[in-house]
């Protein structure tokens, strides 16, 4: 089976195919393999053409395009963030993406990325924690138990062996949903009544709330020595989750500083406040965790290379699984300059 | 028939459906109606969120994202430009685009835009010429007879009544293809041996060549008084078609100056060289053509609002024609926070 049978055809992975692909590969294997690709691409950070995402903000939310290229492949993701969507039965975040051949500009893959983004975000969090959390970390508090929470739990279990999760959400039914979805998968699960209670005894704190505003999910007194904070939820200007004092006590690690300065927790800090780039920790240029009492913070906003990694990983699975359809997306006249002639021939065929 | 039957479904217009849509509406009517929408959107220029396109350049070509929004709808186009593609049997330019609801970020339409871009580029050229060419212009030289050439001819005929085309291409077979495709459609057609010969007696000169380099398609002596030049081919940094002296004798009209300064013919001129924005001519704020001896130049590079107009026009045709399919692009769990649960239920259903 060839992935690109005709020049006009682009393989398309629907939501249904993505679910089947994840299940065929296995959720844990998918997360582990995806994490490996994410890390591989972080390690060759300097080969990527990078730009902060292009955001179109409105009162209700944001629509973003996240392009990047390694000179051989080009990828971009379309993603929205609309916290009020949930009340209307819609996803806060939906996404789709495209991978293309830089050499000729033709798309090689169009795929849903709502599920894929949830997986890549979780895989990236876990990869970062591999370098930043204490080696013996087994317990994680998850503050915010929405659509991303179970993926975080599964990735931290698959990649770091975290087997205890302490859940808190301002809406208890979200925590109950999360606990239900994680049942029977080897976790010790506790639903907590407050963020304060959730972080007690946790080695890792993941914050993944959705409000589009400054919120203080974690206050300074809640964060003890040795903790790794995985701050996932703050991801646009004017949206943060952590009290500023926590940042000042932490060593801060980020994906792409020009984007994180605008969108991350560090928008609360001066523009020249020192942060470490995650890729430099992976390549050994910079240190990650250096002591068991250090507080580490991964101020994650999600970066285009992570989506690129996810697109590239999904594409690698297509031929073997056949879990895609063929989309007639590109005009392909027999003679490339004869686009108008193609229209005329279509007309003749219709008569 | 509703255009959005389910939250997970996005209407998709394939190349085949686009051709059928254009033919169902009629090529001339499609061009005229599309030109009206393009003009309507130019007239409300200030309501758009505008940015130069985001280009990823490589040795062989460019991949661009062109987003814009009017606060209610958001649109973007993915488009590549790879001049060498033609030799490999591929299109120099292929494109697809998405229109979305700003209120919730959900895509409303995914469509091929290779054919649609050819139509919108031609419609935009003709709309500009309506304001900039002499009223009695009936004859047009077309320099560069590739995929865009017939669309230009048809748009100028449908919208301005141009009925004589004088064709030149360095590859005569391209001119012959163009002449063949335009036969029997009410044109007087002449294939010329040189650009010099093509422009003789022409009221309008359209340059639409594809080389990704500085080229001098038109020299100063070839452009007489009263001419309108429709410069379509130069559309990236380092790619121009006109000798600088022509620019200095012309009144120059552009779409979006920050983008045209980088990509258009005026990249040959100082950054503060005076140009007029097309939308201001349409609204009457600025003058277009003021005399029959003036040389006008539409330095067109293609702007995101034109694609937005095209997306919005195509969407308006979907319900009545049914010429689309339904794409399972967006994850739509029954409970929006239960994305992981959707995966689990899919797993249960597969067993």
From TrEMBL, chains A, B:
Listed Gene3D superfamilies: NAD(P)-binding Rossmann-like Domain, ornithine cyclodeaminase, domain 1
Per UniProt, the keywords (alphabetical) are:
NAD
InterPro entries for the chain: NAD(P)-bd_dom_sf (IPR036291), ODC_Mu_crystall (IPR003462), ODC_N (IPR023401)
Task: Say yes or no: keyword 4Fe-4S present.
Answer: no
Q: Which NCBIfam families has this protein been placed in?
A: PRK07589.1 (NF005762)
What family is this?
Answer: Belongs to the ornithine cyclodeaminase/mu-crystallin family.
What name does this protein carry? Answer: Ornithine cyclodeaminase
Organism of origin:
Rhizobium oryzihabitans
Lineage of source species: Bacteria, Pseudomonadati, Pseudomonadota, Alphaproteobacteria, Hyphomicrobiales
